Amino acid sequence: MNPDFVTFDNDVEKNISFRKLDYDRDLTDVFLWMHQQHVIPFWQLNLPFSKFSRHLKDALDDRHQTLYIGEIDGHPMSYWEAYWVKEDVVEKCYEAEPFDQGIHLLIGDPQYLGRGYALPLLRAMVGFQFKRPETKKVVAEPDIRNEKMIHVFEKCGFEAVHPIELPDKTGLLMFCHRETFEKRWSHAGFYQEV
Questions:
Q1: Count of structural domains, the chain
Q2: What's phi and psi for 145, nearest 5 deg?
Q3: Which helix (H) or strand (E) holds 46?
Q4: Is 165 designated active site?
Q5: Is 71 in a helix, a strand, or coil?
Q6: Residue 143 structural domain
Q7: Beta-strand pair 5-9/75-84
Q8: Residue 8's closest CA among 176, 183, 194, 139?
Q9: Alpha-carbon radius of gyration of the chain
Q10: Which residue numbers delimit the N-acetyltransferase domain (predicted)?
Q11: Is residue 194 part of a domain?
Q12: N-term to C-term CA, the chain
């Protein structure tokens, strides 16, 4: 299956790619990732297989978001939800512009934890989202308890705005403006496609 976006990351010297999630191919991997100890507290989707499979089908049918599998050198290892803020619960939390995009993510495969991949992956996805020329801002709302991920978002170019109450968590609303992102990363070609 061909990826939707591929970039070579100079920091980790590996190809990072994103492809749309395929239900039949990816259900088992994503199900297992949702049951990892580092994922459960923040996603709370450690459901029985039948319930999770229905949840994933519903998520795939939700037209305001696109689900992706992130790969490093072709190995599936992360799950992503790229969404349009205008049809998301987050749009009630600030004055959203029509082409604002948002992102949810997890590194599911434990062998990729603690190896410096989170920032390169996030940088690649945000670069992918900014390929839409009308998008001037990418939004994140990590769980306010997830200090490690908040730090990664900040390193990528996101700024904390304020805490927000969402149905499943207290999140920290964060913005990454196109100008900030491009100023920080374009000189190094970090998010250029292969």
A1: 1
A2: -85, -15
A3: none
A4: no
A5: strand
A6: 5-188
A7: unpaired
A8: 194
A9: 16
A10: 16-179
A11: no
A12: 16
- Of 89, 84, 88, 79, whose CA–CA distance to 56 is shortest? 79
Domain CATH for 87: 3.40.630.30
Q: Which residues contact 5 (CB under 8 A, 6 or more apart)?
A: 17, 18, 124, 128, 131, 193
- On whether residue 193 sits in a domain, the answer given is no
Select which of 87, 134, 141, 193 is catalytic. Answer: 141
Longest dimension (CA), the chain: 47
CA dist 49 and 72 (Å) reads: 26
Does pTM surpass 0.85?
yes
Phi and psi (nearest 5°) for 72?
-115, 120
**Residue whose structure tokens are 């799950």:** 79
Report the relative pairing of strands 137-140 and 101-107 from DSSP bridges.
parallel
Q: Which helix (H) or strand (E) holds 67?
A: strand 65-72
pLDDT in tens, the chain (194 residues): 789 999 999 889 999 999 999 999 999 999 999 999 999 999 999 999 999 999 999 999 999 999 999 999 999 999 999 999 998 999 999 999 999 999 999 999 999 999 999 999 999 999 999 999 999 999 999 999 999 999 999 999 999 999 999 998 999 999 999 999 999 987 655 555 65
Q: In angstroms, rounded to a whole number, what is the distance separating the alpha carbons of residues 105 and 121?
A: 10
